[in-house]
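Same chain as my last thread, 142 residues:
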Amino acid sequence: MSFISEFIIIDDDKINNAVCRKVVADIYPTIEISDFIDSQEGFKYIASKYSKAKNDKTAILFLDISMPEMDAWQFLEQFEKLDASVKNHVKIYVLSQSENKDEITRMKSNKLVEYYLIKPLSHESIKLIINVLKKRLGLNID
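reply #2:
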């Protein structure tokens, strides 16, 4: 998949991260996958790597809402302050267990969030994400 640089998972649940890795690898076995249980570490990784990005590839980030060090709301607040080049390279998909309608509505209304997904990640979710992203980027859908 030439337009995706990697999938990034930020969730303090190691089991969820393993599930996400498996689902992504099943569909895209050669794509890079990075995961972080520490949201601050994940944020630093993204800020560093994508501020230096010299290509047009996009990273897909799966972000959990409830995390101890930095929750999704704090993450998004910090992400908003990053350079536009980082924001243009990283597309954020919230992946959460929460089915709280107010929380979902609030998250979906955040301009940095592409989509809200309910755990667990599935093959169908990945395919949907890729097709929507291709459409937004003006690429042909396979």
